[in-house]
Each structure stands twice: as C-alpha cells, then as structure tokens.
Amino acid sequence: MALIDVKTAAARLTELVDGLDETTARGDSLLPGWTRGHLITHVANFSYAFTRQVEYALRGELVEVYDGGRPARNAAIDAGADRPAAVLVEDLSQAVTGLLAAWDRVGPDDWSRPISHRNSTLAHGIDATWRELEIHTSDLGLGATPDEWPATFCAHLLDFLRPRTPKGVHLVLQPSDGPVWEDGTGEERVLTGTLTSLTAWYAGRPTTTPVEGPEPELLPYP
C-alpha cells in the first residue's frame, strides 16, 4: 500500500459527496440503521481520531482512538448525523485533509511506531485508513460500488478479512479476472465471480455481479 492509494481513495470520497443536498444526506446508506449523515460523520470522526493517532505516534506516545471508547464514538455519530448537508460535507473535507497531512509527515523510519488502534503500528494504521475510505465510499450508496476497488485493494482486503473464514471450511475464491485466493482447511467451498464482487461478498457488501457457488456463513468482521 502506498500513500498515493489513500489519497486517491480520499479524493474519490470527497468528490462523491460534493454538493450533497438535504434529502440525500437524510437518505439511507447501505449500512443498516445508518443514514448518509451517520456514515459521513463516522468517516470524519475516524479521520480526526486517526490524525491524533499519527500525531501522538510521531511524538513517541500512545492515545486512545476515541476519548470515551466505543460508546463515545457511537454517541458522537448519532449527535452529528442530522447536521445540515453543507456542514457534513465541510466537516468531512476538513477531517480528511487533516488526516492526509498527518500521513504526509510520516517518514520512512516511522512506520513501525506503535499506535493504540488494534495495538498495531503506523504501517497498519494507514492500511486501516485505506479500508475505511474505500469501503465507506461504496457504503454511501451514491453510485460508487466495489467495482471501483483497485485489484491491490482487493488483495489487501481479502488478506485482512481471513478471520471471517469459518472453521472447517477451505474457502476458494476463483475470480474471472484475477488469481485464485484460498483460506482455511476442511470442506472445500469454491466461489466464482469477478475479483471485486468476490471481495465485496467477503466484506459483507452488496455485489454488482453474481457470486456463484456454495456460500459458507462467514464469521464476524474482524
């Protein structure tokens, strides 16, 4: 993963919501129970939180991802979801711009610095940023779909999501436009489709083209 991939994903997201109107902002996203206002607020808040993760890491310090943990995170999303559309868009733009500026300050020797998010490192953190931007752009339901996910992102996401493969299942994904991907041991389940649709299925997202084969019941998102 390169920072340019994150910047490309960020540009796609901010361009997608530019000019958002009130009706569209109140409409449902593709995430159950969340409007687009909820989702935009979440991505903005994530960006602010991760900017802080980067800034503290570069000082050799750790800080909680969200003050007050997950309950405070959820409350902040609910509190911000119904803001005017223009405010949602401006907040997202500011948050993402600040986050990209923070990542720009990370030097070649900084990537192993620890962060609190998943008890990981800045190298893992920029991957998390990539996932957040790419996936939630599609989740907005504004025309962007997983079909736009780059092949490099699909490869990364499939690897990240390996904990979703059930025990006792040898999952084989056979894309029509990419290499075979396998995980697990046991009863073989072979699924076919495009790379983006197979990746979207594994991520629990709608697919634009069919995924064919005996689908196992996946474990929760890691």
TrEMBL record:
Domain MDMPI C-terminal, chain residue ranges per copy: 148-218
Record carries keyword Mitochondrion: no
Swiss-Prot/TrEMBL keywords: Isomerase, Pyruvate
Residue ranges of every copy of the Mycothiol-dependent maleylpyruvate isomerase metal-binding domain listed in the record: 8-140
Example of a GO MF term: isomerase activity
Coiled-coil annotated residue ranges, if any: none
Any Pfam family the entry gives: MDMPI_N
Top-level taxon of origin: Bacteria
Protein name per Swiss-Prot or TrEMBL: Maleylpyruvate isomerase family mycothiol-dependent enzyme
Species in which this protein is naturally found: Kribbella antibiotica
